[in-house]
Amino acid sequence: xxxxxxxxxxxxxxxxxxxxxxxxxxxxxxxxxxxxxxxxxxxxxxxxxxxxxxxxxxxxxxxxxxxxxxxxxxxxxxxxxxxxxxxxxxxxxxxxxxxxxxxxxxxxxxxxxxxxxxxxxxxxxxxxxxxxxxxxxxxxxxxxxxxxxxxxxxxxxxxxxxxxxxxxxxxxxxxxxxxxxxxxxxxxxxxxxxxxxxxxxxxxxxxxxxxxxxxxxxxxxxxxxxxxxxxxxxxxxxxxxxxxxxxxxxxxxxxxxxxxxxxxxxxxxxxxxxxxxxxxxxxxxxxxxxxx
Length: 292
Hints:
- This protein is an all-alpha fold.
- It has helices at 8-20, 42-45, 57-79, 82-88, 95-127, 132-146, 153-166, 171-182, 185-200, 204-253, 255-258, 265-287.
- Helix content is 73%, strand content 0%.
- The termini are far apart.
């Protein structure tokens, strides 16, 4: 077979695209998002890692185009230069990475909420006198009633647990596998406590109740914080848009007033202003990231 040589420039370009969220499966025509659906055929061979998210081709192209256009419009309002706007708008191609990060966080939040509902069902089944294994199997039916979508994350994970139990794999090992891939403290702690309780003969019903109660309280706190931050996020977005809208208004209705900025030291002032706005945007984003 002929050896395909990759030039250093092509390697750097590929690394940059992968950093932005590009996936090599796009070239072969496969759905890039297949790896995000645990029920798809791709995950039969490789179980889903919830610390990774693969954008589909449409998601990548759409978010990259939107990021490019937004940055281009913002820069053009400041510099009024098509060449400079096209050059700096390349930064907008990093939008798929930000979009992927947002989708990853949302998926983990869904998984945590679904796990809390599953614990309630498990506790009810155990209180009714069912064995631990049968309680997990009964939870699948309850999850199907709560989440009709067959690709619901935890529903598929419990079906994987069922498959492992059918193959005589210990339940503790299946839970540890889920905890390892989920990367959520609640699931990891539950798997550890469950393994200890089953080995030492602890009260599993009480463990389920306490764990579900703790996760429920944690989610309530997160929801309260989200409500408090929602208004601040909206205000922050307005604050970021206002300078560009103000520049566009002055450029359209008072061009003589803005003319000194487009020459000599004016470009330096515009560059400093744009840098400060970019730093403020990054700082606001960091402040809004509150973890519970």
